[in-house]
Amino acid sequence: MPLVGLIGRKLGMTQIFTTGGTLVPVTVIEAGPCTVVGTRRQNRDGYTAAQVGFEPVKAEKLTKAVQGQFKKAGSEAFRIVREVAVAGDEAPSVGTKVTVGELFKAGEKISVSGVTKGRGTAGVIKRHKFSGFPASHGTHEYFRHGGSIGNRSYPGRVFKGKRMAGRWGADWVTTSNLQVVEVRADQNLLLVRGAVPGSRNGMVVVRKRAEARK
Fold first, then answer.
1. How many angstroms separate the CA atoms of 80 and 7, rounded?
2. What is the assigned CATH class of domain 5-118+174-212?
3. 47-86 tens-digit pLDDT
4. pLDDT at 210 over 70
5. Fewest Cβ atoms closer than 10 Å to its Cβ: which of 36, 38, 57, 208?
6. CA angle, corner 14, sides to 11 and 16, nearest 5?
7. Cα(205)–Cα(175) distance, rounded to whole angstroms?
8. What is the pairing mode between strands 189-193 and 23-31?
């Protein structure tokens, strides 16, 4: 299969027993089926990839521009569309359906990308695990602030990347080297050992490892 990944939805976490009797925590991902709705070619776009759609939706729920893309491709409308890399120089043709059973197998390592849970505005203790100030012996206030953030006249600015209070979460994050415990192709389910980014029912992209794409 030329594609190296699928769009999915994180359903939640549970635990299962392996054949050896070991209890394993797993994340259940509804991966696919995905339909190819567009292609990227090396001679035309400068790279090779495929646009895949996930979760069919009524076309009238989308904007006219997005409806036009699906109409041009001759495909049904999908709620989520993402670009996925392909293995090799040829992308699958438009209309090709890709399922989790033909792309992944138990025991292999994958990477999962998703948007982490948004935590809102957080201080340095919650956001960066600062230890805070002593609660006694001369400390009068500001027990949970980050201390000094700058220097004297030189360089006279706060360095970029300084750990401070601010928005925490809601970032696109990729977790690599996750192990596939089980593939339930009849249910389009992928059981992955451990946790993956995102909240329950959040959209994720599941990809094969780089060395497995060849």
1. 8
2. mainly beta
3. 888 889 998 899 889 889 888 888 888 888 889 899 888 8
4. no
5. 57
6. 130
7. 11
8. antiparallel
**Containing H/E element for 128?**
helix 124-128
Q: Identify the residue whose tokens are 């769009």.
A: 7
Q: Are 207 and 5 in contact (CB under 8 A)?
A: yes
What is the C-alpha separation between 37 and 53, in angstroms, rounded? Answer: 6
pLDDT of amino acid 214:
52
Q: How many helices (H) and strands (E) does the chain have?
A: 4, 12
CA distance 135 to 137: 7
Label residue 32 exposed, middle or buried (CB < 10 Å: 0-12, 13-18, 19+).
Answer: buried
Q: Side chain identity at 113, as an amino acid letter?
A: S
Tokens 């006249």 belong to 153
Helix/strand/coil percentages in the chain, nearest 5:
15, 40, 45
Residue 39 pairs in a beta bridge with: 50
Whole-model pTM: value is: 0.81
Can you list the positions of beta strands (E) in the chain?
5-17, 23-31, 34-40, 49-56, 78-85, 97-98, 109-115, 120-122, 166-168, 172-184, 189-193, 203-208
Alpha-carbon distance of 144 to 161, in angstroms, equals 20
